[in-house]
Amino acid sequence: MFELSEQLELIQQALRPYCEKELQSKVDALEEGELPVFELMKDFDGVFGISSMLAGPLKKMIERKRKKEEEGVEERGSIDELLGGEVGTAIDPMLLFVVAKELSRVSPSFALSFGAHLGLCGQTILSKGTSDQIEKYALPIFAFEKMGCWGLTEPEAGSDAFALTTTAVPDGDQYVLNGSKTFITNAPYADIFIVYAKIDRGDAKTDKRMIYPFVLERGTQGLSVGKPMHKMGMRGSPTGEIFLDDVRVGLDQLLGKKEKTGRAQAKETLASEREEAPAMAWGIIERCLDESVKYAIERKQFGRRLVEFQLIQDKIARMYVHLENVRNLAYKQAWAMREGRGSLRDACAAKFYASAAAVEVGMEAIQLMGGYGYMHEQHVEMLTRDAKLLMIGGGTSEIQLLNIAKELARDKGVKLSLAGGLQV
Ligand SMILES: Cc1cc2nc3c(=O)[nH]c(=O)nc-3n(C[C@H](O)[C@H](O)[C@H](O)COP(=O)(O)OP(=O)(O)OC[C@H]3O[C@@H](n4cnc5c(N)ncnc54)[C@H](O)[C@@H]3O)c2cc1C
Q1: Which residues have a catalytic role annotated?
Q2: Which pLDDT score, from 0 to 100, does residue 1 have?
Q3: Distance between CA atoms of residues 306 and 293, nearest Å
Q4: CA quadruple 287, 288, 291, 294: dihedral positive or negative?
Q5: What average pLDDT does the structure give for the chain?
Q6: DSSP state, 155?
Q7: I need a surface site. Which of 54, 125, 217, 324 has the fewest CB within 10 A?
Q8: d(CA 393, ligand 1 centre) in Å
């Protein structure tokens, strides 16, 4: 449980040199906005062959799904099951964790955009789309021909994610979408947009469950995006707004082509975002520790190497304790996902702990390096700014704590609400 399989070990060994040479050499250009993150994703795919590995299983999945649809059977299951187990360990959660970890040692921004493209957008279409929708929208995403984004958050609906005001008003055989989304990863340059809207038949304000994912394409009349937002960290990952102004779509752009309560689906996708956070934190912590030990051995003050000072040893040892805990949490999460034994409380606890640990370790790494650590030239400076996002994106740390308390109270028969007080 606490070791990588031989195959994953080999994958990690292949990823490390690519990340430390190819990716590292492009981090500054990525951060400065001179190199589009999608170009880098295509490069990554060219080296590791993700699209060619997935092309066959995806086509078979579409054929199988189409036959079932003709028989009137709706296929359900995990992505692994839907793909018929064809890619084997390719979708082992631990593989995804190892990839996110290795990428995050060098560029958490790249990992974030990559996850939003394939995970949030691509997987949502795979798990909820019809065969036609998968063929039209998911195939180009998994082939790295089109970039995807996933938009739930709105200016007035963040932690209270389902208080959406974006509406989809039925009009004949179409829907008319109006509203806006904010803080959406990849939105400024995305080609495919998943956006959540409330079907508004007059009772939308009172029924929070009527939330549906629509899939839209760049160039659609009424759909526009804002410029990339200026951020504290994750600067290599474009974040932006999406505006919907009388956007007309047919039923074929409602994921699943059938109106049904879509809230559970958005929750599933949010869970996958939450699950990736410990892996990203793992990478950030591991790299900060590596850099700190190296620096403490090289840097001399008072005629001694920093590493000889016990206060510096204390910092290094504490960083290691966090690394050990976060690594164990990542292994546990991957195991639980593989075995279908994941729980909301454990996933929230892992995200809460790992994201705070990444920020703490980053800050300590900067402190250990003194003025040099505060400078851009030291990688830990960027990693620490990036780490802060892990405490906000995919549900804030406070929301993770509330979810844990809510679950624990529910075990004792008390139903709490995230809005405070009891659930009504
Ligand atoms: C870089 C970046 C990328 C993102 N990418 C995406 C994306 O791809 N798709 C997407 O849909 N969203 C995305 N988000 C949005 C992200 O999920 C939200 O920012 C997050 O859920 C928090 O919402 P908010 O920012 O509106 O904060 P708010 O909900 O306004 O929260 C503000 C503060 O109040 C606290 N708070 C809120 N409610 C409670 C409560 N009941 N009790 C105690 N404290 C509370 C919060 O914890 C926080 O500290 C991204 C955000 C960022 C910054």
Answers
A1: 273
A2: 73
A3: 9
A4: negative
A5: 93
A6: T
A7: 324
A8: 6
Helix (H) or strand (E) holding 243: strand 239-250
Pocket of ligand 1 (CB under 6 A): 116, 150-153, 158-159, 183-185, 231, 234, 239, 389, 392-396, 398-399, 402, 418
- Tens of pLDDT, residue by residue over 133-159, are 999 999 999 999 999 999 999 999 999
Taking the CA of residue 17 as centre, how many other CA atoms within 13 Å lie in the half-sphere pointing to its CB?
6
Q: What is the reported pLDDT for 343?
A: 93
- Please tell me the distance from the alpha carbon of residue 373 to that of residue 245, in angstroms, as a whole number: 46
3-state secondary structure of 193: strand
Q: Which residues, other chains included, contact 146 with Cβ-Cβ below 8 Å and sequence gap of 6+?
A: 140, 191, 192
Count of Cβ atoms closer than 10 Å to residue 405 Cβ? 14
Residue spans of the chain under pLDDT 50: 87-90
Q: Provide the residue type at 6 as one letter.
A: E
Instruction: Give the contacts of 274 (CB within 8 A, at least 6 positions apart).
Output: 347, 348, 351, 394, 395, 400
State the pTM of this model: 0.96
Nearest atom within ligand 1 for CA of residue 394? 17
167: helix, coil or strand? strand
Per-residue pLDDT at 272: 74
The two three-digit tokens of residue 407, written as one number: 């679950």
Taking the centre of ligand 1 as the mean of its atom positions, its distance from the CA of residue 243, in whole angstroms, is 19
Is 354 within 8 Å of 329 (Cβ atoms)? Answer: yes
Domains with residue ranges and CATH for the chain: 6-147 (1.10.540), 151-261 (2.40.110.10), 264-411 (1.20.140.10)
pLDDT at 88: 45
Distance (Å) from CA 121 to ligand 1 centroid: 19
Distance CA 364, CA 407 (A): 33
Q: What is the pLDDT of residue 91?
A: 67
Q: Please report where in the chains the tokens 């932006």 appear, as a residue.
A: 240
Partnered with residue 242 across adjacent β-strands are: 181, 225
Q: Taking a C-beta distance cutoff of 8 angstroms, is the pair 226, 148 a contact?
A: no
